[in-house]
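User: Now give one protein:

AI:
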Amino acid sequence: MASNGFDVGTDRPVIGLTTYLQPAQTGVWDVRASFLPAIYFEGVGLAGGISVLLPPQPVDEAITERVLDGIDGLIVTGGRDVDPAAYDSPRHPATDEPVADSRTRDAFEFALIQGALRRGLPVLGICRGAQVLNVALGGTLHQHLPDVLGHAHHQQGNAVFSTSTITTVPGTRVASLVGGSTDAQCYHHQAIDRLGDGLIVSASDTDGVIEAVEVDPERHPHHWAVAVQWHPEERLDDLRLFAGLVAAATSYATQKTAQKTAQKTRKVSL
């Protein structure tokens, strides 16, 4: 047992994963449901973390903080397009039409990201998650890449992932995790346009599309917040991004436990 009370051998970090909220069919049931494809939490488990699913729900600051108290890392997952009203843009015809449940999810994830960044809790954004991180920090999105690029390679449709070659920016966290380049599984028709405040580009593809961002380490050297536009969960033979988050979450949990122990010691001494 480590002296600070956190044993990385047995007390694996708890990773919260955001979930979908939309109609779902199973057997005879056709209901509104919160759900997440299993490959997300399988990736967390294989990388050494423990998964908990976070259903979208109305939140205020107190609820957000209580949710974040129970986790050591956060993954903001894929899903429907972010409501363009969140970045003051009219909706493109190809953008998913916002409904009450999708707006609830947007607000929930914005609150979780902002709360996580305030406390330095590690964050990994995946696809939509990269877009949510960017918008949460005041950035904007290209709503339909075929209009920008002239082709639909990034999202061919019918649940068929395309492979893109991603080049990372030297010195970034993403580069330290996946190297100078990697082949990525992509399924997105939107992408980051104007960067959110405090973010830097950490990877792009051959079309110049931003494929990864992270919190600027020069401004926030102790924050671990990385977001990729591609889907690392589709390649569970490559756990480098999941492993990076789990390692950061382990460090966060160790520090959190040490702080609690120190607080208890101070109270006893008083």
